[in-house]
Amino acid sequence: MPSTSLPQSMRAHLLEQYNTDYVLREIPVPAITHPDDVLVRVDAASYCHTDAVLASGSMRPFPPSFPHVGCHEFAGTVAAVAPQNPRPRFQVGDRVAVSGRGYHACGRCAECRRPSGPDPDAPGFSAYCPRSSGLGLSRPGGFQEFALVDARQAEPIPPALSARDAAPLMCAGLTVWAALRRCRLAPGARLGVVGCGGGLGHLGLQFAAKMGLKVVGVDVSARGLALARGLGTAAAVVDASEQRAEDVRAAVGAEDGAEDAPAMGLDAVLVLPESQAAFDYAAALLKDGGLLVLVSFPEAGFRLSAYDVVFRRLRIEGSLIGSNVAMREMLDFCVAHSVRAETRTYPFSRLNELVKDYHEGAAGKLVLDLSVEE
């Protein structure tokens, strides 16, 4: 069955200029024209820091034009499949989680022929394909009632997860999961999460603790610290405005029985905030030879200490988002270990209220839940 009975029009939140509110308008339901595509009825759409960066004009040339429909982490139900595809990956009625990267990956470029990353997909598709588009960035995303999705960028939602559970995992969860995988740490190793009370950070704390790592979470926000401390992960949560990184490092070294300063500290640290202070604090937490994994991308960049790289042998890697292999592993891990995002939900029409709360420092993940009464 290629589709259910579909409406001709739908509601969509449109960004019509940088630094303006979203405008809720009625627009046509998109038609499927590509054999890889499915039409998804959006059940939950999660707001990401990247949505805020894009709306501010700091990710130019994205969006390529206005009006624009944002959101690259959402979940929903398949409403139609391509009639020209005799073997569609999904059927009408399937629940799917959608990560915006990799829309129409070409399958022919060097990246698609040999996918990169810590958990690469099979040859033929890469989330990092340079010729692909990104839902919510370069083409319409999930802040609308129906969205066109490349079936290859989606995964079935496990029965134990709701759409509201799954949506924040499609960027926040998958991004911090990929960053953790890039650390290549064995159980018992020490990991830091700077920005542990944010959307990515509080998921990273849960993942890392359930992986058997010894975790130090760092934040400065009162709301973020409260969220991190309330997760029950047994991570040590540090207020960076009150405790110096050098003191944390010394305490860790004493606990580990390290005799020399170079051996004291963490094995790896994830840097999630965009501030230089966060970067410097993270570097100061590491033992010599430790790894900094950068997930944030401030417009002005980060200032790097050559001394730390040369004499302390600190290593730096960037991490963007995970592959489909990583997405499946992450979803299974969330079910097996009861990892969930802390969410605040809003009716579909109240996106601008959600954005206001985000900019005022609301903790956790903020999600439009289309099942919530208006």
Q: Secondary structure elements and their pairing?
A:
Blueprint: E1 9-14, E2 23-28, E3 37-46, H1 49-55, E4 73-81, E5 95-99, H2 110-113, E6 146-150, E7 154-156, H3 163-166, H4 172-183, E8 190-194, H5 199-210, E9 214-219, H6 222-229, E10 236-239, H7 245-256, E11 266-271, H8 276-285, E12 286-294, H9 306-310, E13 315-318, H10 324-337, E14 343-346, H11 351-359, E15 365-369
Parallel strand pairs: 8-9, 8-11, 9-10, 11-12, 12-13, 14-15
Antiparallel strand pairs: 1-2, 3-4, 3-6, 3-15, 4-5, 5-7
Domain Alcohol dehydrogenase-like C-terminal: 199-334
Pfam families: ADH_N, ADH_zinc_N
Keywords: Metal-binding, NAD, Oxidoreductase, Zinc
Could you explain how this protein is built, in words?
This protein is an alpha/beta fold. The chain folds into two domains: 9-170 and 341-369, Quinone Oxidoreductase, Chain A, domain 1 (Alpha-Beta Complex); 174-318, Rossmann fold. It has eleven helices and 15 strands. The strands form three sheets. Strands 3, 4, 5, 6, 7, 14 and 15 form a seven-stranded mixed beta sheet that branches. Strands 10-9-8-11-12-13 form a six-stranded parallel beta sheet, with helices on both faces. The chain has a two-stranded antiparallel sheet with strand order 1-2. β9, α6 and β10 form a beta-alpha-beta unit. The model has no long low-confidence stretch (mean pLDDT 95).
Summarize the structure.
Helix content is 26%, strand content 23%. With 374 residues, it is α/β, with parallel strands linked by helices. Helix 4 (172-183) packs across helix 5 (199-210) and helix 7 runs parallel beside helix 8.
